Amino acid sequence: MPPIRAAFSSRPATGLDWIDRTICGYLILPVFLFCLWFIPLAAAILLALTCLATWHALRGPLLGSTGPGNRMAISIFALALGWTAIAGVGHFFYANSDWLIRDAVLHDLSISGWPPTYQIADGSHLILRAPVGYFLPSAVMGYLFGASASNIAIYLWTALGWGLFLVAACRLFNTPRERIFCLLILTFFGGMDLLGHAWAYREVPAFGQHIEWWMPSIQYSANTTLLFWVPNHALPAWLGIVLILRHWQQPSLARITPLLATAVPLWSPLAAIGLFPFFLFGLAWRRDRKILFSPWSCFAFVPIALLTMKYLGMDAAEVPHGWMTEMWGTWDLFAYRYVLFCLLEFGFLALILARITHFNTPMRVAVATLCLLPFYYLGIGNDLAMRASVPALCVLALATIKPLAQQQGRTLWHGLLVGTLLVGGLSAAQEPERAFIEPAWKPLGKTIPASVRREHPEAGSLFPAHYFAHEDSTILMALMRQPKALDVSKEKPY
Q1: Which of 394, 421, 452, 78 lies closest to 233, judged by CA?
Q2: Element (H or E) spanning 163, and its range?
Q3: What mean pLDDT is predicted for residues 51-55?
Q4: Does the CA dihedral 402-408-414-418 come out positive or negative?
Q5: Stretch 249-275: mean pLDDT, rounded?
Q6: Which whole-number Å values give the CA distances from 417 to 159, 181, 190, 414, in the listed order?
Q7: With 60 as the cut, is the pLDDT of residue 10 above it?
Q8: C or N: which end of the chain has fewer Cβ atoms within 10 Å?
């Protein structure tokens, strides 16, 4: 039995079933919509090539699903609808402050021509340059049916992604007991932030307090934090990693890799960075290289993939970045904080898992990735660590399921595993608690600059570098449409 199966599944995936195809379709749909950002001839060519490549990647006989039965799958999607509402998506419950900007991105994509452009005071134009994959399907609904429709659409779109992730993860396990544990762990998995908060502030956090930032300038987010704050980054990371684990070292992974490599960056380049090491080790390169580099799948995706990378890379040097030792001042301070952060966020859990389960290649890749990410920061809030860590943390979460579910041969280490997960679960529970003590609020219906002014009145610029770029004279701008620019100079934030 291959090592990957010993930790996650006993039945190898030799092809694609309806869940695999649905996940791939979910991830690639925004790429088709992104093709419409280009002039008609370029859009037609890009759409044709992307359709051809997608068909080639997903073609073949439809295999029967090895996942949970229809009744359990329906129950999971029903629970996903409820949990996504509690997360604040759709504004049925309290939504965290980051939704001011997320709502604004959806608003601008819904009311303006694609790509959204903005006229600034000196008469020049800026272009919205952001990972827009998560928003595009809902923006279409907003354009066709109005703002209320886009709000409902983003809720249903998010619930669908969360439900697909849970159903796909349950396929990695065989017994109902394991699958129940899988649902619980993936919903409430997180690091021991309660202990980190107590160390940093010498206090017990208040009910519903956000405690993830106990270590300055670095965070490995709990699953509740990810869904409640940044589903746009979390969903492609979660869906991507469960596909990789299910098809580890199988020809089917080589078939869908070009599709995923094209789709995920438009959702989240940082999630793509976090997934890259798992693709690197999960592919059987020597055996499956002809499948991976097939002209009809790999190379047909190349034009839209290159244009996507060019779009996401516009003015990228303006985004803050550097070594964490520069931010924390000295090597000794970095070493102290680094060790403490790693131990509480994943280190103790990894040490326990090494004692009670087979520490397979995905788990080793996960630990190595989590150890390396704190050395470099990218973004105002160090988004690199927060978002690129998601696939690796998910691997460790999944690795806890079988040891938890086993009913014989328990040891002290199993008790320590339960204790570690309980502390992490209590830390993660801080997020849903907030949904029941804070009032819900409705989307403001404002552009991104107005929302930046609302959320950060002290901001020196209403056009942050991680959302906007200057138009240039490259082939990208020559191929992109040129819609009328939004004049936001007189818009009020309230």
Answers
A1: 394
A2: helix 147-170
A3: 96
A4: positive
A5: 96
A6: 30, 13, 13, 5
A7: no
A8: C
Instruction: Check whether 66 has a pLDDT greater than 70.
Output: no
Q: How far is CA 414 from CA 292, 320, 355, 362, 409, in A?
A: 40, 42, 9, 21, 9
Please tell me whether residue 119 adopts helix, strand or coil conformation: strand
Distances (CA, A) of 183 to 22, 163, 176, 356: 20, 10, 11, 21
Report the C-alpha gap between 419 and 429 in whole angstroms: 15
Distance of alpha carbon 57 from alpha carbon 51, whole angstroms: 10
What average pLDDT is seen over the chain?
91
DSSP symbols for 12-31: ---S-BHHHHHHHHHHHHHH
Which residue is associated with the tokens 């040490």?
351
DSSP 123: S
What residues contact 391, with CB distance under 8 A and at least 6 apart? Answer: 237, 238, 240, 241, 244, 271, 274, 275, 278, 366, 369
Task: Report the C-alpha gap between 200 and 185 in whole angstroms.
Answer: 26
**Locate tokens 């354009």: which residue?**
143
Total number of residues shown for the chain: 494
CA distance 266 to 103: 18
